[in-house]
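Have a close read of the entry that follows and walk me through the local backbone shapes. See right below:
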Amino acid sequence: MAPYPASSAVYRAEFNREVPEGVRFSCEDMNFVVTGRMDPEDDTPTGLSHRVTCESVGAATNHYSGQLIPIEYLEGLTHAELVELLIPGDDEEETERFRQRVLDSFQSLAFGGNQADYREKVLAIPGVGDVKIHAVWNRNLRPATLIPSGEVEAWFKAVKDTLEPAVAAWLTAVFTAASQKLLTVGGTVRLVIMASNFTAPTKTLLEEVQTKMDPTQNAGEGLGLAPIGHVVKVDGVAPEPVDIELHLTYAVGWSWEAVRSYVEDVIDNYFAELAQMWASSDFLTVRISQIESRILSGCAAMVTDIGGTKINGVESNLALDPDSIPVRGEVSG
């Protein structure tokens, strides 16, 4: 075992023209290199989308945006902008976290696609911060309901020759498997991941993890890190907006407009702490007492009292879904 190494942040950048791989740009004090063209569906009216990777490593590279300056002249380039963080960069694994991972390895053997094995493999992928593993996650689906009846078989025979070849091939494969009782709920694994900056992962990160664990086009064939026979579905943790209504008593000279940004920072920090506990919790709970005590502590010079706080319009704590994390919605004071 070794500490997970530091990794580079990957961004989406927009250009007014196609830019070949290997072209380098600068943004503030960092350099970036184009590593590929993104799917045309990611293009916007303002530009063509490309993947660019920071040449430096670490979490400090996750907070850049704005104009990209070409390091070498590129003919016809009039627009270059760093738009969106796709995969967060990671610092080298902290010593204490690595030590805990070593100690945990003595308690559970990572082997052959068990939960410890999945966790070890997923967390080693750059950009992944944490994961929940749901084995046989579609167990509520009864295999018996997948077996076609006589009416279904008659319908299939009547329509298969009228379909497009690709559609007919797919339908034939599904019908054949179902009629021979080959469809089952066993061997299904659902991975719910969080990005390493403790936010919901982007589509790009989800696709990378899916491809490394179990490529969709070869599902269950063992061409990824998952064992043969395991069909893996990778989802992202869901960000759940939380609206908060506050009733504050202000110190002399202060108002909601003046304290709003400070209060929002306190809430954001609280939600970030909750997100870091997501993988080890059955579900997260946003607590009114925590919101009030943190605001009174963090904004002591501006706020003298607080009460009657409501979360999503209700004066009670909010329990989130098991695969959700809180994000700040509307905050009023």
